[in-house]
Design brief:
By secondary structure, the chain is of the alpha/beta class. Among the domains are: 106 residues, 3-Layer(aba) Sandwich (Rossmann fold); 164 residues, 2-Layer Sandwich (Heat Shock Protein 90). The strands form three sheets. A five-stranded parallel sheet has the order 2-1-3-4-5, sandwiched between helices. The chain has a five-stranded mixed sheet with strand order 7-9-10-12-11. Strand 3, helix 3 and strand 4 form a beta-alpha-beta unit. The protein is rod-shaped, with a radius of gyration of 49 Å. The relative contact order is 0.06.
Length: 416
């Protein structure tokens, strides 16, 4: 920054003299030879570090010019140093100060004194500009900070509102799920009576009118019986699914291998029909709802038998392992470490495309036609609900033609 100085004197030689003294210090100069010319310059330029002005000038003297300059608010910050050849006495000096002067320099001008005094005022000018720039910067920072605070407040309010809406939605969903479970239970229960009558009368009709209705009639009766049986299975599955939510049996320490063996014993006929091999490794004792663990194992093993390859005996292997998930930000801390027991049920069946690994746990979701494989599409949805009731999760890994593996992960921090 090269400060600008306004030099005012009615004599050109005086202007040149002051300019030659101050020029080595790198200042820029604007020169005027009268008070009127000064006022004209200051109409368009007002960024002067200092005005050096002669007192004795025609028309408007230095005192009068200074008074007119300081009438304008924009010019009041410019210091004026009077240069005079006369000693006016204290009264006139005071008059100059009253007009706005900040100092006097007497002629003949002492170059060193002039340079020293100008240097002081220029330094003040520079510091003032730095303060103004700093003030502007602080104002900008404060404005940005205020905007950021307002944005954060708005964001926090929005997050609070969204959390409130989320809690309301969760509450509504829980209520809707409870109502839906109750409806499913009641609807399925109410369907039992008419369905029993349909099955009973179709069985009687098959017994007493089998010959009279002919082959086509017997075919129709057989279809009625098959559809009724499938509907009965569907109702039983829906009832089983609905009961999981309302199941209040306490969690207790249970031997999972013992529960699994009971399930396999009940499935003995289906296992022998498929000529299946079941390999069961040691399973732990966990705190579970034993009543719900039976349909969990049963549905997954039934699927492994159902979706086995033709002309290939099913081989099902069941084993477990333990893993830990650290839920603390500090990876080395074990205070919040949650342990899981992962139970693997692996088969050598037909498998499925891995992209459907999540969809297969949806209600009524089937990957194969009803005519090819029987089922209601509720079994795996029931398994997912049972596992979630245990605060665990279930997943599947598979590849077409290469079998499937279902992984049941149950919290095991309370292993007995």
């Amino acid at each position: 920054m090269h400060p600008k100085i306004l030099l005012v004197d009615d004599r050109e030689d005086n202007l040149l003299s002051m300019e030659s003294i101050l020029e080595p210090d790198g200042y820029r100069f604007v020169k005027a030879t009268s008070g009127r010319e000064v006022l004209k310059i200051l109409l368009v330029e007002f960024d002067f570090a200092l005005i050096l002005m002669d007192v004795k000038m025609p028309n408007l003297n230095g005192f009068e010019t200074a008074s007119l300059i300081y009438e304008r608010e924009k010019l009041k910050h410019i210091p004026i140093v009077f240069i005079t050849a006369n000693n006016y006495g204290d009264e006139n000096v005071f008059k100059g100060y009253r007009a706005g002067a900040v100092d006097y320099i007497y002629k003949p001008v002492n170059p060193e004194l002039l340079r020293a005094k100008v240097s002081v005022f220029v330094d003040l000018y520079k510091k003032n500009h730095q303060l103004l720039a700093q003030e502007q910067k602080l104002m900008t920072i404060n404005k940005n900070l205020e905007m950021e605070i307002n944005e954060r407040k708005a964001s926090q309010e929005k997050v609070t509102e969204l959390n409130h809406q989320l809690l309301e939605n969760i509450s509504r969903l829980e209520s809707a799920n409870n109502d839906l479970d109750l409806f499913a239970f009641m609807a399925s229960h109410d369907l039992q009576a008419p369905l029993r009558k349909i099955r009973m009368f179709s069985d009687r009709l098959a017994l007493i009118a089998s010959e009279e209705v002919g082959e086509q009639g017997r075919n129709y009766i057989n279809r009625i019986q098959q559809v009724s049986e499938r509907m009965q299975t569907l109702i039983n599955d829906i009832l089983e699914f609905s009961k999981v939510s309302s199941q209040e049996e306490p969690f207790e320490d249970a031997d999972l291998k013992e529960i699994l063996n009971e399930v396999l014993s009940e499935m003995d006929v289906a296992i022998h029909e498929k000529n299946a091999s079941i390999v069961v490794d040691d399973l732990p004792v966990l705190r579970v709802n034993a009543v719900l663990m039976r349909p969990l194992f049963s549905n997954i093993i039934s699927n492994a038998l159902k979706y086995s390859k033709k002309n290939t005996p099913p081989v099902i292997r069941i084993h477990s392992e333990f893993s830990a998930v650290n839920q603390n930000a500090n990876a080395g801390s074990k205070e919040n470490e949650l342990r899981y027991c992962r139970i693997f049920i692996e088969d050598n069946g037909i498998g499925f495309d891995q992209r459907y690994a999540e969809e297969i746990f949806d209600m009524f979701r089937r990957l194969h036609p009803q005519a090819e494989f029987e089922g209601t599409g509720i079994g795996l949805a029931l398994c997912k609900k049972i596992v979630e009731k245990h605060k665990g999760f279930i997943s599947a890994r598979s590849k077409k033609g290469e079998g499937s593996a279902f992984i049941i992960s149950l919290p095991s921090n309370h292993v007995a």
